[in-house]
Amino acid sequence: MADAILMAGGTGGVTSDDVTAGKAQVLQGYRTITSDSDDEIVEGEMINRGNGMVTVEFGDAYWESKYFARIEQGYYAQVDQWKPYVSIPYAVLANGIHLDANKMLDTLQVSGVRGRIPVRGYRGPDCTEMFMYQPDGGYVVRIEEGYYHMGGNRQWKPYVLVSPALAKSAVNYHPEKTLSDTRTCEEQGQIKMVNTQDSNYRINKSTTYGIDSWSDKNNPILYIDLPYGNGYYYRGDGHPHTCIDATNLGTAGADSVLQWQTATSVHGVKFEGAIPRWICSTGDVISAVDNNGFAWDDTTGANRGRGIVTKIPNGHFIQGANYVFLPAPYVLSENIREGVNMFGVPGGLPDYRIGRPVFRNATFNTIYVGGVADKDFPEANILRDRSVSVHNYARYDGGTTISLLGSNNYHFFNNYAGFVLDRAILMTFFKQIKVKYRLDVTSNSTNASRSAGVEVFVGLYNAANRRQILANASKEHRYYQAQIYDGGVYEFVIDTSAINTDVFIALCAVPFSDYNGASIAGNVTFTDIELIN
């Protein structure tokens, strides 16, 4: 550490703010201004420890793989050629490095501690005790405590001797329990020997075997009797065996055994089956492979007709399923023609080919039409209201009724008053159309030669252009008497067998009268419209 020299006559303006050393960084016995002396000259506080001292703590810094020695804080100086030191007493060092005399040879002394382990050398004292120790599964050979080292220029491991008499007693040797080719403790063994490799490995083939399921019902076993009875069975490769003819185990192959199951046969022992499983995890209905299926006509000769086939994995075992599912989101009642039951779903789709009433009992069959159009049919000159005056008109009156009044030489010429059904009907499947209507009219005539009446008309118009009339029927009801009421029901039957297109059905009625003195008033109501096959 450098000495600080202060010149006489002041410090040249040096203050505590100009220095960085504190009192703790200045040796005791030296005075100077420090950073913590408030501009005053003070004596340093650092203790001078001289050349060295005894450690105050010695320990094992195992986490850094080293030892440490603690010393008191202070200043340590080199004395001549001797650098500063720290000394460690033997007792402290022995404790710090965990010296244990019981773990040191008796020829070794460290830090004042001499070892207590005797050196026994390469050959130790002869063994005097040998016995079987069952808990450890081996024989115990007791030796004297101590250190044994290798011999023969460290080629041979150390050893002790066990006398033959001690070994024979320890192993409880019996010749009747020893192989016939073995001489132990000067006695020949008496157990017969069978080399199972002889006769092409078949000398020990057995003809007595079976499944033992009675000795342990939870663990049945395959037993094979040894043909030579008690004896020692051996083979040169260390794998003596007995055997039976493999054909007695059966002929099953992997292709006839289920996957994850095993079998033993002439083809192998405990081989795994190769028949894959098709496992259902959705109740007892399994999904078709790739959701693949289609309609198919049986061509196998089994005469099963048409059906739905679904794809299944070939050669698989179906597990946990009674049915195969094929997605059919369109198998809905509304997509199946009425009268047809498809896979248990009754058809709800109207069969437009079947003849049936279009209108009856004041109700429209919405299969074909929904009601009456709410506007005129000008392409065919059919108007819902054809009024000339308050005394001469024919107009659609709602429902299927046309009200009419005719007098004073009134007659419609180029126009019909009536209505059209709101939808076109395809007539391909129908041979006839039947229309019924009911009159509710009263006629008056002041002259027997004069008449009044109503003409009822039904027309089938081509839906493509609305002008072409493809079939029609009309009936004139004429009355000459002074006053006549007609409340009768009448019908048309129109042949439609030649029509193969969509048609609009128009229903019309117009009044007429001969000059003055004749009139007609009332209603025409259409009561029944029926398509006939």
Produce a short descriptive summary.
This protein has 533 residues and is mainly β. Among the domains are: 57-110, no CATH class; 248-275, no CATH class; 278-325, no CATH class; 357-532, Jelly Rolls, CATH 2.60.120.
Describe the structure in your own words.
The structure is a single chain. The protein has 533 residues and is mainly β. Among the domains are: 57-110, no CATH class; 248-275, no CATH class; 278-325, no CATH class; 357-532, Jelly Rolls (Sandwich). The protein has 3 helices and 45 strands. Strands 31, 32, 34, 35, 36, 39, 42, 43 and 45 form a 9-stranded antiparallel β-sheet that branches. The relative contact order is 0.06. Residues 1-11 have low confidence and may be disordered.
Topology (SSEs and partners):
Blueprint: E1 31-33, E2 41-43, E3 48-50, E4 52-54, E5 57-61, E6 66-70, E7 75-76, E8 85-87, H1 90-96, E9 109-110, E10 113-114, E11 119-121, E12 130-133, E13 138-141, E14 147-148, H2 164-171, E15 183-184, E16 187-188, E17 193-195, H3 198-201, E18 209-212, E19 221-224, E20 232-234, E21 262-265, E22 268-272, E23 277-279, E24 285-287, E25 293-297, E26 306-310, E27 317-319, E28 323-325, E29 341-342, E30 345-346, E31 357-360, E32 363-364, E33 382-383, E34 385-389, E35 392-396, E36 401-407, E37 416-420, E38 425-426, E39 432-445, E40 452-462, E41 469-479, E42 483-486, E43 489-495, E44 502-513, E45 518-532
Parallel strand pairs: 3-7, 4-8, 11-14, 17-20, 23-27, 24-28, 33-37
Antiparallel strand pairs: 1-2, 5-6, 9-10, 12-13, 15-16, 18-19, 21-22, 25-26, 29-30, 31-32, 31-45, 34-35, 35-36, 36-45, 37-44, 38-44, 39-42, 39-43, 39-45, 40-41, 40-44
